[in-house]
Amino acid sequence: MSSIGFVGPGIMGAPMITNLVAAGHQVLAYGRSEMSCTRILAAGAQVAGSPAEVADGADLVITMLPDTPDVEDVLGTGGLAAALMPGQIFVDMSTIRPDTTRDIHHSLAERGIMMLDAPVSGGEAAAHEGTLSIMVGGEASALDEAREVLECLGATITHVGPAGAGQLTKAANQLIVAANIQAVSEAIVLLESAGADLTSALAAINGGLAGSTVLTRKREAFINGSFEPGFRITLHNKDLRIVCSAADGAGIALPMTALVSQLMVAAVAQGLGHLDHSALLTLIRTCNSSH
Amino acid sequence: MSSIGFVGPGIMGAPMITNLVAAGHQVLAYGRSEMSCTRILAAGAQVAGSPAEVADGADLVITMLPDTPDVEDVLGTGGLAAALMPGQIFVDMSTIRPDTTRDIHHSLAERGIMMLDAPVSGGEAAAHEGTLSIMVGGEASALDEAREVLECLGATITHVGPAGAGQLTKAANQLIVAANIQAVSEAIVLLESAGADLTSALAAINGGLAGSTVLTRKREAFINGSFEPGFRITLHNKDLRIVCSAADGAGIALPMTALVSQLMVAAVAQGLGHLDHSALLTLIRTCNSSH
Amino acid sequence: MSSIGFVGPGIMGAPMITNLVAAGHQVLAYGRSEMSCTRILAAGAQVAGSPAEVADGADLVITMLPDTPDVEDVLGTGGLAAALMPGQIFVDMSTIRPDTTRDIHHSLAERGIMMLDAPVSGGEAAAHEGTLSIMVGGEASALDEAREVLECLGATITHVGPAGAGQLTKAANQLIVAANIQAVSEAIVLLESAGADLTSALAAINGGLAGSTVLTRKREAFINGSFEPGFRITLHNKDLRIVCSAADGAGIALPMTALVSQLMVAAVAQGLGHLDHSALLTLIRTCNSSH
Amino acid sequence: MSSIGFVGPGIMGAPMITNLVAAGHQVLAYGRSEMSCTRILAAGAQVAGSPAEVADGADLVITMLPDTPDVEDVLGTGGLAAALMPGQIFVDMSTIRPDTTRDIHHSLAERGIMMLDAPVSGGEAAAHEGTLSIMVGGEASALDEAREVLECLGATITHVGPAGAGQLTKAANQLIVAANIQAVSEAIVLLESAGADLTSALAAINGGLAGSTVLTRKREAFINGSFEPGFRITLHNKDLRIVCSAADGAGIALPMTALVSQLMVAAVAQGLGHLDHSALLTLIRTCNSSH
Question: Rounded distance, CA D2 to CA D88, Å?
């Protein structure tokens, strides 16, 4: 049984806290909004007065926040970084920029604090079921210590490399998902142009080398045009900004990534941001029809 | 038991003939090269002296040829079209241009001959095992008659729409495969830039929404850089020419398809054409390294 | 003074005939429509009854037709190819596919007939003024003989290489124009996002290394959103099909060309085909705004 | 006659100081390196001990620095921002991020200090000749006061809009130049594939709607493959990072910009960074040839 500090009881974070408490861990959590308090208490955890406070007596501190600046705020202005003590492990499960992640790793390491970057995939459903896929970057020894806690949250916990590698793997994941959705969307527009039966054609396609989890899970959405999220285009757009900035930082040209990234920006600009990312189909259809 | 005419006893066609004979069908086949004769006899079929001859007494005539001009040649110069009789069914299992396919459908239909366009996926292995995935365009009634024969060749036979829809579905399939390979290749270059552990990162990625048959089947090739075909880049390039020409014909803009299609052309230009299509990874690596 | 056969008295062709007649040449011309007759007579030329007939007694035969199949029709079904005699020079001033051009060159050469491919730029205005820019592919000796006639039509006549090189140079020209229009359009969308003064910003840009004839001639159209043609998007789209097919035939990857080509297709699909090609600006604006 | 503070006596900055002194202005300048001192003295100006010091008694302070962080450093750590006094005008002639520029404008405005963002085009030669093209963002009244000084440096001084509009116009300029170079490069590869005569084909192209300053000034470089800078690929790459980040910040999708930006990254990755930006031609040639 561990003492766990937690910042970020949101749509993903709240069910994660519930799972930690259910596994017998003691959780002290902080959230900015009033609703956060309600969520924390409902999850069976205790409410902290500030980000810094959650570090108090914790074996492990977890953050689960929307974007890079949120993590920087909680650590800096929120005082969490200063409050962390040697021997404690800091696990950032947010999806943020790999370069920022590496900076945080290094500045904490100088003070004897080990960090893991541990972004997740699987979405809200997997957060509730405790079946997230967790991609972990950082020292293997830190993961050894944190593994028991992370196993309450995820079905697979994969050590993918040094500091930042978790974030980079998540970035790679998000670029593949976006490219896949776009590829299937273009295929659908092509199929429709010839009066092909979409349901049977996609079934045939999914049975061969073109098969994918995107096609399996999103086929109904594509066929019915039902794009309730799921995973919002605005969030995927944010993640692709991270991908592009990581590629930029590494001086790597990724032409397909750059293209799908522009298409995601256009989807947001066209007011599709609140829809599931499978609505890239709407964008390419609009692109090919008069208004 | 049917009488079957067959043109094209190549790498794919020869094992298909074997499977037809094994199922008890009588097969009369034609191939241009000397090796063709050997293959036809080895498969237990009889050798015809010309493409036209295979139609003689056939219930069903199958073609399995490399490219659009080959099918046109066999039907025109080879005399097969003229030799086909009302009541016979013509099944073209080659991967060719959908517009040409529709032209052939229509000109045969005027003479009372039903045609199916029935391109396949699954490759050489599936051709041997009789487990091809067959995408069929044309009249449902024609497929009803041909189905028993096609079931000797494929594990799934899907009617995907009217004349040309089979070819278009195959085209859609090939664009998704190419985009997927490119997306995974870009992800790998990104992962390598951060020293991520490729084996574990790709495993984690394949477990979530980014998972795909490409990632499952080609992961080893990507990791080890072993690009023996498999499916050659030159062939995939030919298929993407078909995709682009189909989109062109329909007046549809498919930006990601256009991009990956250019990358496939560049791969051929760089001398990678004889390698498996997963060698798009080599292209993007070359693109990002000094020579 | 020469005897000239002419096929294609259209928007470009009619004023070209007028200029030839004004220079003292004898012109026998053919056009398909009733309006063609009127135009030919108004230009001071004589009307032929068929494409073949214009070759009768001609020193030089000129075609100025909309697209590749039109040239093929006039030469084949129209009988012009068969009617041409050794010693006559055939000058195709249409913008068509370089590979078709080369085929025609070769089949005429076998019969002792020299051909020039001589597409033009400059548009309707330059056709009237006789100031077209003419890009000529073929034998230098053929150009020597044809030059005096071509000088009635164009201000600059440039020999750019062997058979097909004229068409390829025109193709290269059209890809640069399209890319330029798209680049300026993207620049404008960027400038508008920051409230920059478009008129002064474009003036400043045009004064430096980013300056271009597109920016000089189309600036007003861009600023005022007045997209009457000029050169129609449908025509530029046709020309970009030629560019892509030429690149395809040569096995060359041209990524930016492929992209702008898709954008031109999308512009047509969105119903902008009748507007001037500078209306690519409308496309990128639409792409970035909610409807 | 004005008192001018100047930070950044580099390849561009040094001849600018010379021109200011020649026009009778009193210049106090700071540079980090030892060579800076030599350059400042050679230009006839006085040497300051720190960035902050140049503000002392100045009517106008000019910075001409390589990149965004350099300007931030000089203003922050270097103490220049704190040293500026109400009534002084700050003119940043560096090419930096528009969002950073706007932040600096606003924070200086709060203290009564007016700022102009005034990036230039024209390169080293124009800096020496005092014929730079200067794109100015900020208050018109500030430009009124600074104009006489700027006229010693540039041939055209254009007020293009509010704070940041100067940087954005420069960004727009750089994206057009890059797209133009890439378009011409792709055209050249296409022309070479058909054995066209490059010199005459480019001359013909430059005479029509495809004409551009890039084609005029860089034609020799393209034809001879002589890519000594001029303007380095590394610098253009930096500028395209600014363009992409400005588009990102504004939520605008610019597909062609994104593509050419990836090509510039690839050029750097392939070790071409030290060459003139016209060496994008080398990239597309490499892309289309086996090694």
Answer: 11
Superfamily of domain B3-162: NAD(P)-binding Rossmann-like Domain (3.40.50.720)
- Residue D57 to residue D71: CA distance in whole angstroms: 21
D86 touches chain B (CB under 8 A): no
Fold annotation for D3-161 = Rossmann fold (3.40.50)
Are the beta carbons of B251 and C265 separated by less than 8 Å?
yes
Spans in chain D with pLDDT lower than 70:
291
CA distance C139 to C142: 5
B60 touches chain A (CB under 8 A): no
Contact A204 B135 (CB under 8 A): yes
Rounded to whole angstroms, the Cα distance separating D291 from D284 reads: 13
Q: Is the pLDDT of residue B261 over 90?
A: yes
Domain ranges of chain A: 3-161, 168-287
> What does the alpha-carbon distance between residue C65 and residue C51 come to, in Å, rounded to a whole number?
12
**C248 contacts chain B (CB < 8 A):** yes
Whole-number pLDDT of residue C291: 66
The DSSP call for residue D54 is G
**A217 — pLDDT class (breaks 50, 70, 90):** very high
Q: Which one of D190, D287, D291 would you mutate to disrupt binding with B, by most B Cβ within 10 Å of its Cβ?
A: D287
**C99 vs C120: CA distance, rounded Å:** 18
Active-site option among B170, B218, B219, B232: B170
CATH topology of domain C168-287: N-(1-d-carboxylethyl)-l-norvaline Dehydrogenase; domain 2 (1.10.1040)
CA distance C255 to chain B (A): 6
Q: Which residues contact D80 (CB under 8 A, 6 or more apart)?
A: D7, D51, D52, D54, D55, D61, D63, D74
Q: CB A137 to CB B252 under 8 A?
A: no
Q: How far is A263 from chain C (nearest CA, A)?
A: 9
The dihedral built from the CA positions of residue C237, A188, C283 and D176, taken in this order, carries a sign that is negative
Question: Whose structure tokens read 């999308």?
Answer: C266
- Chain D residue numbers touching B289 (CB-CB < 8 A): 269-270
Q: Inform me whether the C-beta atom of residue D193 falls under 8 Å from chain B C-beta atoms.
A: no
* pLDDT given for residue D1 in this prediction: 84
Mean pLDDT of A110-135: 94
Asked if C17 contacts C54 with a C-beta cutoff of 8 angstroms, the reply is no
Give me the active site residues of C, please.
170
Q: Is D100 on the interface with C (CB under 8 A)?
A: no
Tens-digit pLDDT profile for residues B8-35: 999 999 999 999 999 999 999 999 998 9
Distance, first Cα to last Cα, chain D: 60
Query: Most D CBs within 10 Å: which of B287, B290, B291, as the mutation test of the D interface?
Result: B287
Give yes or no on whether C3-162 and C168-287 have one common fold.
Answer: no
